Fold these 3 entries.
Entry 1:
Amino acid sequence: MKKKLLSLLFGVATAALAMAATNSTLPADTNGDSTVTTDDAALIYAYILGTADEAVTLAQVDVNGDGTINTLDVVEVYVEMNKGFSDGWVDVYENEG
């Protein structure tokens, strides 16, 4: 299930690649448009793959603040998107044994 979820996240993110400029007050809002969407996850993947605009910084896409850009930052974006949904994928995923 974990591999399928990560594959799905990667597929969605790469399909929605977004090039951005600045970060906002929401850590998961990597592209600075004041909303947290799949475009924010796509920007992280673009940074990892080396296809993001040169203006994109590590601080901008380091959502969890650990100094490393990886899938954990993407997961933080999806967790932020899921807030407010009682039956979202995060809850289902955590309740699966």
Entry 2:
Amino acid sequence: MQSFLNRFYLHTINETLDIIDFKFSNIKIYNAKQKIYFSNLPEGKKTIQLYTLIGKKIVKKQIDTNQTTISTEQIAKGIYIVEIKTEKGTKSKKIII
């Protein structure tokens, strides 16, 4: 009969995992008056993209400022994904239009 003792080992460390993303923690994204508002964006070049839930790209906008808007007048009501790409990383958020 085969022995299965000492087959698996559990290794632990005395550290906590951190998932807070400080470079994107202050970004504000909200929808009002047929526009999506973005503020407190990080410095540098940024690309803002709006996707449907099935992944179709609706809007792509490149900016250098720390705030901007995207008009939603020509976009159907529904749930979308906003993606902000910077030189330091990417942030995605669901938004209802």
Entry 3:
Amino acid sequence: MNGSYNTDLSIEEKCEQLRKVVSTNMKNKRQELNFTQEELAERVEMSVEAIGKLETGRQWFSVESLVRVCFALKTTPCQLFLDREHDYLIPAAEVLG
């Protein structure tokens, strides 16, 4: 991985960056599989509203919902945490302080 992660950010900024990366990756993966939000919601037993909030970063995952979403999207949590724009995997330790 060639990118860098700005460690000078506040915890709030780090969390916002993480939400943005994960929500974008989730939406892109869903669209890559040609799933609608409704189809994904049904597969993961969540509401369409919850899927929309996850994809916009307005809601965060429980561990169970993260696993369900990854399973339905045929991906891994690591792939959702990968900042493709900067070719960087956001380390949870840095986000959590």
